[in-house]
Amino acid sequence: MRSNFKNYFLQEIEELMNKKIFGTDGVRGPANSFPVTAETALKLGIAVGTFFRSQVGTNRVILGKDTRRSSYMLENALTAGFTSVGMDVFLLGPVPTPAIGFLTKSMRADLGVMISASHNPFYDNGIKFFGPNGYKLSDKSELEIENLFHSELELSNPSLIGKASRINDGLGRYTEVAKTSLPPHLRLDGLKIVIDCANGSSYKVAPEILWELGAEVICLGNTPNGYNINLGCGSTEPLIAADLVKRENADLGICLDGDGDRIILIDENGEIANGDILMGLLANTLKNKGTLKGEGLVCTIMSNIALEQYLKSIGLKVFRTKVGDRYVAEKMKENNCNLGGEQSGHIIMSDYFTTGDGLTAGLQFLTSIVETGKRASDLFKVFKPFPQILSNIKINKNDDILRNKNVRDSILNVENEIGEYGRIIVRKSGTEPLIRIMVEHQDKKIARKVSAFLTSLIESQ
Asked: What is the Cα–Cα distance from 214 to 211, expressed in whole angstroms?
C-alpha cells in the first residue's frame, strides 16, 4: 500500500513544476496579487472563453461567487473577458459551488465559473471552472488554457460582443434539487439543528432548506460582510458551533465552508466528525438500500486507513486518488461510483451533484437520524480512526522545498521505517502557501515523533 503513496508524492512534485496559474482547485491566492488580480481574471476570461467557444460554440457562461469583497472585482473582470470574445454571461450572485456545477449542465451552458477561495480567509480568492457536463476541468484542459492565456488571442468584432444578464432563480433551482435528495415525504420535524454557514455563499439557502423541511434551526455565520467569511466559524473552525450545539441541546451541528462544498458534523455532545466518518456511514447506508454504485467509494490519500479497513470489512472496495475533490470526481466516473469524498469534508454524491455539496451530505446524515431513530453520537461510531497528526508549515509561494533531494529521500526513508500500520503524506498545498504534513500510525506516540522530525526537517531548509 505505501508504495502507492510514494508514487503520489513524486507525481505531485512533477505536476507542480508544470502548472503556473492553476492549482489543485482552480486558480487561488491572495486577492490583488498574481494570479488573483483583475488583470489576470480579464485575460483568463478571454482565454477560457476562447477555449470553450472553439469547442462548443453556444457561448453561454454561468457565473457565481461567494461573499468576499474581492469577488465583485473578479466578477466584473471575468465578465468583461468573456463578453469580449462573444460569450453571454449569466450572473447568479452568491451561490454555493455545487449550484454552479448543477446549473451549468441544467441550463445547457458551455462553461460554469465559481469565484471563491472556499475555506480560505477573506483576503484570498479564487476561480473554479466547470465544463458543460458540470464537472471541474481536467489537468489537460487547464494546461491548454494556460497556453492560450500566454498567447495572443483574437477578440470578437463589435457586432458579436456578448451580453451579461442576472438570473434570480438559481438558488431556487438548487434548493429543489437538494431537497429531492431526501426520501419522499421525509421530514425533519422535531430536530433542532445548528447550522454554521461560515458567513459564506450558503448563508441564506442552507437555513431556509432546513427550516422548510421542518427543523428548528439555529444559525451561526449567516451575516456576511465581505470580510468575515470563514472567520472563527465554518468547517475549518467548528468549536463555536460545537459549544452552541451543547448549550442549545441541539440534535446536530452542521458546519459548511465559505462556498458550501465542505461539511463537518457535530453530535449532540459537541463531538466533531470529519468526512471519513460521514463517508463510512453513507457507504454502508447506500449499500443496505441497494443504491451504492461501483461496489465502493472513492477517497483521497489523506483518508484514514481505518476507513479503508472498515469498508473492506463490509465487502466494499476503496479507490484512492490524490488530494482534490475534482480528482475524486474523475475517479468516481472511471469506476462508476456514486459516492466519494475527502477527509476535509468534500462529499460527492453524484446522483445529485457533480461536486462536493456539504448541505446535501448533511441532509443524508439527517435522513439516517430520522430513519434509524439513533442519536448522532451513535451514528458517529462507524469505526475508530487511526491517530493522525496534521501540521502545516508556511513557505514562500515559489519555494521548491519538496524538490530538494535530501528532503525527498528523508521522507521516503522514514516512511519505510514506520511499519505497515503507518503512513506519511507530505505535499505542497494547491490552495495556500503551505507544506502540509500528515503522519498516521496506530501508535500515536510514534505519529507525534515522526511528525516532529518531518516538521523540523522542512523548517530547516
From this structure: 5
